Amino acid sequence: MTMQQLRLTMPTPEATQAFAATLAPRLAAGDVILLSGGIGAGKTHFARSLIQSLQSPPEDVPSPTFTLVQVYDTPKGEVWHADLYRLTNPDECIELGLVDAFETAICLIEWPDKLEDLTPSDALHLEMIDANKDDSREVSCHWTSPKWDQILDGAQP
């Protein structure tokens, strides 16, 4: 499979929120989005925006930094939001139920490097890059599964 790439500029947090809200209704069970970038790069903001756009009415979406995984019931099915920063071994991802969730839920994974060999091959990778200009961010997207071509088509801000 050929790797596809897309680079987006998010000039404001609201632009990131709009991108997440546009992407959310296009997702289905089994879709995995891997969110990477430094601390404060906007990973949780993106995940929170995506989850809240699927909720009616939107609820509080706390960061899963300490709980590791938060699960939300939405009209599109379960959405799993995981923060793997504190994990020390990929086996802990199995214990959390993430591998099963990759097939049955929409999954948003922060710090996906902790998955190592468990990383789904058909995931969408979003790398958030602080552009050092006010609140703007660059988002580098890459994927190999053709399903993301259709999901991302027209979803850019």
TrEMBL record:
GO terms for molecular function: ATP binding; metal ion binding. It holds the Pfam family TsaE. This is tRNA threonylcarbamoyladenosine biosynthesis protein TsaE. NCBIfam families: T6A_YjeE. InterPro entries: P-loop_NTPase, T6A_TsaE. GO terms for biological process: tRNA threonylcarbamoyladenosine modification. The keyword Magnesium applies. The keyword Magnesium applies. Belongs to the TsaE family. It is found in: Cytoplasm. One of its GO terms (cellular component) is cytoplasm. PANTHER family: TRNA THREONYLCARBAMOYLADENOSINE BIOSYNTHESIS PROTEIN TSAE (PTHR33540). It comes from Pelagimonas phthalicica. Its main location: cytoplasm. Keywords: ATP-binding, Cytoplasm, Magnesium, Metal-binding, Nucleotide-binding, tRNA processing. It comes from the Bacteria.
